[in-house]
Amino acid sequence: MNKKTVMLVLALFLWGTNLVAQVAKTSLIGAGDTVWDLVVAGGTVVTMDGTRRVIENGIVVVKGDTIAAVEPMTPEAKDKYMYTAIQIIDAKGKLVIPGLINGHTHIPMVLLRGLKDDVTLDDWLRRFIFPAEAKNVTEDFVRWGSRLALAEMIRSGTTTYADMYYFEDAEAEEAKAAGVRGFLGETWIDFPAPDNKSEAEMAAYTEKFLKKWQGDPLIHAAVAPHSIYTCSEKTLHDAASLARKYHAPILIHVSEMRKEYVDSIEKNGATPVQYLERIELLGPDVLAAHCIWLDYTDMKIMAERQVGCVHNPSSNMMLASGVAPVVDERAAGMRVGLGTDGPAGSNNDLDMMEEMDLAAKLQKSYRVDPRALGAKGALEMATIEGARALHMEKEIGSLETGKQADFAILNLNVPNAVPMFDVYSQIVYALKASEVETVVVAGKTLLKNGKLLTVDEAAAIAKAKEYGKKVAASLQ
């Protein structure tokens, strides 16, 4: 028996026992052989590539942080990849999907989860959230909130997220430690914030933040002017100028509520989108959250300027902010992704599996048309279209050779997963976050067979309980 046969038999034995094979590089591997860091073998691979290939019995090969191959699991593929793989994951009977992209959230707000529900957005912000944040948000709050939220996101298959909050440098350090890809925006707002009490402080903190994370493979530092109703035109200009100086993304809430829309017309003589266009803020570096109250001129501007837009169905329903015209926005050529929004009052979880389900159903109900947004469209918004909204479609959002190795493996051996007639329908309407077993980002395993590897989940849960008592006491 030659050396290749020996290694192949060993790898197949371990793969067949449903274990992750730790096949070390030994003297049995020849000097000219390519060693693969990770091989995921035998699963149904939902690529979300340009042709939306679904490979029933597929193999995903990882070298470093990159996908080296995605193809059917033929005998030739086994021989080429498996005998020199350092790690093999048996995905037989499971689903392999691109990592989900949460395009808009405020993750440290998990520590304010359920603080005040069932009120209007304006009341929620001004009467409850802003005062609670002023009394409680510190760097320590942000760190522990981020850890709890990152655990929750990893468990539900999220590999990339876009966030705006305070002490964002601390959150970036936590995201980096957890191994999650982040577009993280330091908030600019026209009143004293928990981390910075003036625009001068905001500018100094943000510039230091942008410099620190330039070129990082996981963390994309951003500037986040909160909205047109909390930022003056000068603040918007200053924030955008700083972001563009460092070629950083700009994150902002746009047309989230009817009041914002009406007030902008009265104050600025234009819709929020047309006002932002007039002051030259819009461009491909902008990621706009919500985009509910848009007319067709707004949609045309957003598409032409290549602005990313993020739909947040749970948040919009919970706060009764309105229904984003997602079908029309997509038809107009807008880059529309999907997000959870913050996990406190506007949505009390960070579950992207749930957001896909709600996104499709909300459009059907809103348009009184069951064909309005199908399951495939909802999955696109959480993967490849979410990547387009971030202008990262060449790096993430689908399982293709040369892209970043970001993916999740879902268990199909549960009652709600069978039978399966249509894979997109199953993912969006039937499967839950609890089916996520394994999560990989940039080739690194963050969740393995249901066990978190990069976040101390127990410590984060314990600390969250402590903070819950502290927040409640501060508001009495």
Relative strand content? 15-25%
Q: Indicate the radius of gyration in whole angstroms.
A: 23 Å
Tell me about the largest β-sheet.
Answer: 10 strands, mixed
Q: Structural class per helix/strand content? A: alpha/beta
Q: Please give the oligomerization state of what you see.
A: single chain
Please tell me the overall pLDDT.
93
Task: List low-pLDDT spans.
Answer: 8-28
Notes on the structure:
It is a single chain. Helix 4 (139-155) crosses helix 17. The protein is of the alpha/beta class. 40% of the residues lie in helices and 21% in strands. It has 17 helices and 18 strands. The N and C termini lie far apart (75 Å). The radius of gyration is 23 Å and the shape is globular. Strands 1, 2, 3, 4, 5, 6, 15, 16, 17 and 18 form a ten-stranded mixed beta sheet that branches. A four-stranded parallel beta sheet has the order 7-8-9-10. Strands 11-12-13-14 form a four-stranded parallel beta sheet.
